[in-house]
Design a protein that fits this description.
The protein is α/β, with parallel strands linked by helices. Helix content is 50%, strand content 17%. One of its GO terms (biological process) is methylation.
Length: 337
Protein backbone atom coordinates (compact mmCIF):
# COMPACT_ATOMS: atom_id res chain seq x y z
CA UNK A 1 0.00 0.00 0.00
CA UNK A 2 2.85 2.40 0.82
CA UNK A 3 4.35 1.94 -2.64
CA UNK A 4 1.04 2.65 -4.35
CA UNK A 5 0.53 5.73 -2.18
CA UNK A 6 3.93 7.11 -3.15
CA UNK A 7 3.35 6.34 -6.83
CA UNK A 8 0.00 8.11 -6.85
CA UNK A 9 1.36 11.03 -4.86
CA UNK A 10 4.14 11.45 -7.44
CA UNK A 11 1.49 11.62 -10.17
CA UNK A 12 -0.45 14.27 -8.26
CA UNK A 13 2.71 16.31 -7.79
CA UNK A 14 3.42 16.39 -11.53
CA UNK A 15 2.43 20.05 -11.71
CA UNK A 16 5.24 20.90 -9.30
CA UNK A 17 7.84 19.24 -11.49
CA UNK A 18 6.55 21.10 -14.54
CA UNK A 19 6.96 24.45 -12.81
CA UNK A 20 10.38 23.57 -11.42
CA UNK A 21 11.64 22.92 -14.94
CA UNK A 22 9.83 25.92 -16.46
CA UNK A 23 11.27 28.27 -13.83
CA UNK A 24 14.77 27.01 -14.54
CA UNK A 25 14.30 28.02 -18.16
CA UNK A 26 12.73 31.38 -17.31
CA UNK A 27 15.70 32.20 -15.07
CA UNK A 28 18.04 30.89 -17.81
CA UNK A 29 19.79 28.52 -15.43
CA UNK A 30 20.55 25.99 -18.22
CA UNK A 31 22.30 28.74 -20.21
CA UNK A 32 24.14 30.15 -17.19
CA UNK A 33 25.59 26.71 -16.43
CA UNK A 34 26.57 26.04 -20.04
CA UNK A 35 30.18 27.11 -19.52
CA UNK A 36 30.82 25.11 -16.37
CA UNK A 37 30.51 25.43 -12.61
CA UNK A 38 28.97 28.38 -10.77
CA UNK A 39 28.75 29.09 -7.06
CA UNK A 40 25.44 29.94 -5.47
CA UNK A 41 26.55 33.56 -5.15
CA UNK A 42 27.47 33.76 -8.84
CA UNK A 43 24.26 32.08 -9.95
CA UNK A 44 22.22 34.24 -7.60
CA UNK A 45 23.75 37.34 -9.15
CA UNK A 46 22.90 36.15 -12.65
CA UNK A 47 19.31 35.16 -11.86
CA UNK A 48 18.34 37.70 -9.24
CA UNK A 49 17.33 34.93 -6.82
CA UNK A 50 18.48 35.38 -3.23
CA UNK A 51 21.15 32.88 -2.22
CA UNK A 52 19.19 31.17 0.62
CA UNK A 53 16.18 30.64 -1.66
CA UNK A 54 18.40 29.62 -4.57
CA UNK A 55 19.99 26.86 -2.50
CA UNK A 56 16.56 25.42 -1.73
CA UNK A 57 15.57 25.60 -5.39
CA UNK A 58 18.80 24.03 -6.66
CA UNK A 59 18.27 21.15 -4.26
CA UNK A 60 15.03 20.42 -6.11
CA UNK A 61 16.72 20.67 -9.52
CA UNK A 62 19.37 18.27 -8.27
CA UNK A 63 16.62 15.83 -7.31
CA UNK A 64 15.22 16.07 -10.83
CA UNK A 65 18.62 15.24 -12.29
CA UNK A 66 19.13 18.65 -13.94
CA UNK A 67 22.12 19.80 -11.85
CA UNK A 68 24.69 18.22 -9.58
CA UNK A 69 26.92 19.56 -6.80
CA UNK A 70 30.39 20.74 -7.80
CA UNK A 71 32.04 21.49 -4.50
CA UNK A 72 30.73 23.50 -1.58
CA UNK A 73 27.73 25.65 -2.59
CA UNK A 74 28.54 25.24 -6.29
CA UNK A 75 26.67 23.59 -9.15
CA UNK A 76 27.14 22.29 -12.65
CA UNK A 77 24.58 21.18 -15.21
CA UNK A 78 23.96 17.59 -16.24
CA UNK A 79 23.44 16.26 -19.77
CA UNK A 80 19.70 16.49 -19.16
CA UNK A 81 19.72 20.25 -18.62
CA UNK A 82 21.55 20.74 -21.92
CA UNK A 83 18.24 20.01 -23.66
CA UNK A 84 16.78 23.13 -22.03
CA UNK A 85 19.36 25.57 -23.39
CA UNK A 86 18.53 27.84 -26.27
CA UNK A 87 19.66 26.29 -29.51
CA UNK A 88 19.20 23.52 -32.03
CA UNK A 89 17.02 20.62 -30.94
CA UNK A 90 16.30 22.22 -27.57
CA UNK A 91 13.14 21.90 -25.49
CA UNK A 92 13.55 25.51 -24.39
CA UNK A 93 10.42 26.79 -26.13
CA UNK A 94 8.34 23.82 -25.05
CA UNK A 95 9.36 24.34 -21.42
CA UNK A 96 8.23 27.97 -21.55
CA UNK A 97 4.84 27.05 -23.02
CA UNK A 98 4.43 24.06 -20.69
CA UNK A 99 4.85 26.33 -17.69
CA UNK A 100 2.39 28.99 -18.84
CA UNK A 101 -0.19 28.61 -21.63
CA UNK A 102 -0.22 24.82 -21.76
CA UNK A 103 -0.28 24.63 -17.97
CA UNK A 104 -3.33 26.86 -17.71
CA UNK A 105 -5.13 25.04 -20.52
CA UNK A 106 -4.74 21.65 -18.85
CA UNK A 107 -6.39 23.05 -15.73
CA UNK A 108 -9.57 23.16 -17.86
CA UNK A 109 -9.42 19.48 -18.85
CA UNK A 110 -12.86 18.87 -17.33
CA UNK A 111 -14.37 21.33 -19.81
CA UNK A 112 -12.73 19.59 -22.76
CA UNK A 113 -13.95 16.20 -21.57
CA UNK A 114 -17.52 17.41 -21.14
CA UNK A 115 -17.76 19.30 -24.42
CA UNK A 116 -15.15 17.84 -26.76
CA UNK A 117 -13.94 21.39 -27.39
CA UNK A 118 -10.60 23.14 -26.82
CA UNK A 119 -9.80 23.79 -23.16
CA UNK A 120 -7.27 26.41 -24.25
CA UNK A 121 -9.93 28.46 -25.99
CA UNK A 122 -12.21 28.14 -22.96
CA UNK A 123 -9.42 29.34 -20.64
CA UNK A 124 -8.11 32.22 -22.78
CA UNK A 125 -11.23 33.25 -24.67
CA UNK A 126 -9.56 32.70 -28.06
CA UNK A 127 -7.99 29.76 -29.83
CA UNK A 128 -4.27 29.09 -29.70
CA UNK A 129 -3.62 30.61 -33.13
CA UNK A 130 -5.30 33.93 -32.33
CA UNK A 131 -3.53 33.91 -28.96
CA UNK A 132 -0.19 33.63 -30.75
CA UNK A 133 -1.22 36.43 -33.12
CA UNK A 134 -1.68 38.72 -30.11
CA UNK A 135 1.30 37.66 -28.00
CA UNK A 136 4.74 38.01 -29.58
CA UNK A 137 6.54 36.20 -26.76
CA UNK A 138 4.19 33.23 -26.96
CA UNK A 139 4.53 33.18 -30.76
CA UNK A 140 8.32 33.02 -30.49
CA UNK A 141 8.17 30.26 -27.84
CA UNK A 142 5.75 28.26 -29.98
CA UNK A 143 7.94 28.68 -33.07
CA UNK A 144 10.94 27.45 -31.09
CA UNK A 145 8.96 24.42 -29.98
CA UNK A 146 7.99 23.60 -33.56
CA UNK A 147 11.58 24.12 -34.73
CA UNK A 148 12.85 21.72 -32.09
CA UNK A 149 10.31 19.09 -33.11
CA UNK A 150 11.25 19.45 -36.78
CA UNK A 151 15.00 19.36 -36.10
CA UNK A 152 14.70 16.17 -34.04
CA UNK A 153 13.15 14.21 -36.89
CA UNK A 154 14.34 16.12 -39.96
CA UNK A 155 17.02 13.69 -41.13
CA UNK A 156 14.67 10.76 -40.68
CA UNK A 157 12.02 12.41 -42.84
CA UNK A 158 14.49 13.45 -45.54
CA UNK A 159 15.94 9.94 -45.72
CA UNK A 160 12.49 8.36 -45.96
CA UNK A 161 11.10 10.47 -48.80
CA UNK A 162 12.76 11.48 -52.07
CA UNK A 163 11.95 15.18 -52.33
CA UNK A 164 12.32 16.78 -55.80
CA UNK A 165 15.54 18.52 -56.81
CA UNK A 166 13.77 21.22 -58.83
CA UNK A 167 10.33 22.72 -59.32
CA UNK A 168 8.32 24.37 -56.54
CA UNK A 169 7.58 23.02 -53.06
CA UNK A 170 4.92 24.73 -50.93
CA UNK A 171 5.13 24.25 -47.17
CA UNK A 172 1.67 24.89 -45.75
CA UNK A 173 1.87 25.88 -42.11
CA UNK A 174 5.60 26.34 -42.57
CA UNK A 175 6.20 27.42 -38.99
CA UNK A 176 9.67 28.93 -38.71
CA UNK A 177 10.61 27.47 -42.10
CA UNK A 178 13.11 24.87 -40.89
CA UNK A 179 11.94 22.04 -43.16
CA UNK A 180 11.57 24.15 -46.30
CA UNK A 181 14.90 25.91 -45.73
CA UNK A 182 16.69 22.56 -45.48
CA UNK A 183 15.09 21.40 -48.74
CA UNK A 184 16.20 24.58 -50.50
CA UNK A 185 19.74 24.31 -49.14
CA UNK A 186 20.06 20.73 -50.36
CA UNK A 187 18.59 21.41 -53.82
CA UNK A 188 19.87 24.68 -55.38
CA UNK A 189 17.42 24.45 -58.30
CA UNK A 190 14.40 24.07 -56.04
CA UNK A 191 12.08 26.99 -55.25
CA UNK A 192 9.74 27.27 -52.31
CA UNK A 193 6.53 28.82 -51.05
CA UNK A 194 6.32 29.36 -47.28
CA UNK A 195 2.67 29.72 -46.27
CA UNK A 196 1.99 30.84 -42.71
CA UNK A 197 -0.14 33.11 -40.57
CA UNK A 198 0.72 36.81 -40.60
CA UNK A 199 2.06 36.64 -37.02
CA UNK A 200 4.73 34.05 -37.83
CA UNK A 201 5.56 34.46 -41.53
CA UNK A 202 8.35 36.85 -40.55
CA UNK A 203 10.01 34.10 -38.49
CA UNK A 204 10.05 31.85 -41.56
CA UNK A 205 11.54 34.67 -43.62
CA UNK A 206 14.32 35.15 -41.07
CA UNK A 207 15.13 31.44 -41.17
CA UNK A 208 15.41 31.56 -44.97
CA UNK A 209 17.65 34.62 -44.78
CA UNK A 210 19.85 32.94 -42.19
CA UNK A 211 20.22 29.91 -44.49
CA UNK A 212 20.82 32.17 -47.55
CA UNK A 213 17.85 30.79 -49.52
CA UNK A 214 15.31 33.62 -49.15
CA UNK A 215 15.82 34.63 -52.80
CA UNK A 216 14.33 31.29 -53.87
CA UNK A 217 11.34 31.43 -51.58
CA UNK A 218 8.01 33.23 -51.83
CA UNK A 219 6.48 34.20 -48.49
CA UNK A 220 2.69 34.14 -48.36
CA UNK A 221 0.72 35.14 -45.27
CA UNK A 222 -2.76 33.71 -45.13
CA UNK A 223 -5.23 31.23 -43.70
CA UNK A 224 -5.54 27.72 -45.14
CA UNK A 225 -9.13 27.66 -43.88
CA UNK A 226 -9.84 30.20 -46.63
CA UNK A 227 -7.49 29.31 -49.48
CA UNK A 228 -4.07 27.92 -50.32
CA UNK A 229 -1.59 29.50 -52.77
CA UNK A 230 -1.36 27.95 -56.22
CA UNK A 231 1.67 27.24 -58.34
CA UNK A 232 3.51 24.44 -56.51
CA UNK A 233 4.40 21.00 -57.80
CA UNK A 234 4.23 19.44 -54.36
CA UNK A 235 2.38 20.65 -51.26
CA UNK A 236 3.78 19.62 -47.89
CA UNK A 237 1.63 19.71 -44.76
CA UNK A 238 3.63 18.65 -41.72
CA UNK A 239 2.22 18.36 -38.20
CA UNK A 240 -0.85 20.41 -39.06
CA UNK A 241 -3.87 18.16 -39.54
CA UNK A 242 -3.69 16.68 -36.03
CA UNK A 243 -4.42 20.19 -34.74
CA UNK A 244 -7.97 20.01 -36.07
CA UNK A 245 -11.12 17.93 -35.79
CA UNK A 246 -12.34 16.04 -38.85
CA UNK A 247 -14.56 18.84 -40.14
CA UNK A 248 -11.79 21.44 -40.08
CA UNK A 249 -9.18 18.97 -41.34
CA UNK A 250 -11.33 18.16 -44.37
CA UNK A 251 -11.75 21.86 -45.08
CA UNK A 252 -7.98 22.38 -45.12
CA UNK A 253 -7.34 19.34 -47.29
CA UNK A 254 -10.05 20.32 -49.76
CA UNK A 255 -8.64 23.83 -50.02
CA UNK A 256 -5.29 22.23 -50.81
CA UNK A 257 -6.90 20.04 -53.43
CA UNK A 258 -8.37 23.11 -55.11
CA UNK A 259 -4.83 24.46 -55.57
CA UNK A 260 -3.02 21.26 -56.54
CA UNK A 261 -2.63 21.04 -60.30
CA UNK A 262 -3.41 18.04 -62.46
CA UNK A 263 0.06 16.61 -61.91
CA UNK A 264 0.60 18.00 -58.41
CA UNK A 265 1.15 16.02 -55.24
CA UNK A 266 0.26 16.41 -51.60
CA UNK A 267 2.63 15.09 -48.94
CA UNK A 268 0.98 14.76 -45.54
CA UNK A 269 3.46 14.28 -42.69
CA UNK A 270 2.08 13.37 -39.28
CA UNK A 271 3.09 11.43 -36.23
CA UNK A 272 0.63 8.56 -36.34
CA UNK A 273 -1.19 7.23 -33.29
CA UNK A 274 0.55 4.07 -32.07
CA UNK A 275 -1.62 1.90 -29.88
CA UNK A 276 1.35 -0.18 -28.69
CA UNK A 277 2.50 2.77 -26.54
CA UNK A 278 -0.88 3.34 -24.95
CA UNK A 279 -0.04 6.01 -22.37
CA UNK A 280 2.06 8.22 -24.65
CA UNK A 281 -0.52 7.90 -27.43
CA UNK A 282 -3.38 8.78 -25.08
CA UNK A 283 -1.56 11.81 -23.65
CA UNK A 284 -0.61 13.12 -27.08
CA UNK A 285 -4.17 12.67 -28.31
CA UNK A 286 -5.67 14.44 -25.28
CA UNK A 287 -3.12 17.25 -25.65
CA UNK A 288 -4.55 17.94 -29.10
CA UNK A 289 -8.05 18.07 -27.61
CA UNK A 290 -7.05 20.32 -24.72
CA UNK A 291 -4.94 22.77 -26.70
CA UNK A 292 -6.70 22.85 -30.06
CA UNK A 293 -9.82 20.72 -30.10
CA UNK A 294 -7.92 18.43 -32.48
CA UNK A 295 -7.00 14.76 -32.36
CA UNK A 296 -4.24 12.29 -33.08
CA UNK A 297 -5.03 9.71 -35.76
CA UNK A 298 -3.81 6.36 -36.99
CA UNK A 299 -2.35 5.93 -40.47
CA UNK A 300 -5.64 4.41 -41.59
CA UNK A 301 -7.61 7.39 -40.29
CA UNK A 302 -5.37 9.81 -42.20
CA UNK A 303 -5.88 7.76 -45.35
CA UNK A 304 -9.66 7.95 -44.91
CA UNK A 305 -9.46 11.74 -44.45
CA UNK A 306 -7.47 12.12 -47.65
CA UNK A 307 -9.92 10.02 -49.64
CA UNK A 308 -12.86 11.99 -48.26
CA UNK A 309 -11.10 15.20 -49.29
CA UNK A 310 -10.76 13.99 -52.87
CA UNK A 311 -7.31 12.42 -53.00
CA UNK A 312 -5.98 9.06 -54.09
CA UNK A 313 -3.33 7.87 -51.64
CA UNK A 314 -0.45 6.50 -53.71
CA UNK A 315 1.86 5.36 -50.94
CA UNK A 316 2.38 5.52 -47.21
CA UNK A 317 5.81 5.51 -45.57
CA UNK A 318 6.38 5.06 -41.85
CA UNK A 319 9.51 6.10 -39.95
CA UNK A 320 10.79 4.39 -36.76
CA UNK A 321 9.76 7.44 -34.72
CA UNK A 322 6.14 6.96 -35.75
CA UNK A 323 6.02 9.73 -38.33
CA UNK A 324 4.06 8.69 -41.39
CA UNK A 325 4.35 10.27 -44.84
CA UNK A 326 1.30 9.91 -47.05
CA UNK A 327 1.79 10.83 -50.69
CA UNK A 328 -1.46 11.61 -52.50
CA UNK A 329 -2.69 13.00 -55.80
CA UNK A 330 -6.05 14.52 -56.67
CA UNK A 331 -8.69 11.94 -57.43
CA UNK A 332 -10.63 13.10 -60.44
CA UNK A 333 -13.72 11.17 -59.47
CA UNK A 334 -15.93 12.57 -56.73
CA UNK A 335 -15.58 13.65 -53.14
CA UNK A 336 -16.55 11.00 -50.59
CA UNK A 337 -18.41 12.77 -47.81
Amino acid sequence: MTGMFERLNALLDGHIRTQLVASAVRFRIPDHLADGTLTDVELGGLTGIGVPTLRRYMRALEGLGLVEPAGENAYRGTELIELLRRGTGSLYGHALMAGTEYYQAWSELDYALRTGDSAFEHRYGRDLWHHLDGDDDAAVSFARTMRSNTERFLEEILELYDFPDDGVVADLGAGDGTLLAELLVRSPKLRGIAFEQPATIGIARQTMEDRAVADRCEFVAGDFMAEVPRGADIYVIKSVIHNWNDEAALRILRNCRASVGEHGRLLLIERALKIDDALEAAIRDLAMLVLLGGQSRSVGEYEVLLRRAGYAVERTLTAPSGFCLLEARPSWGYFVR
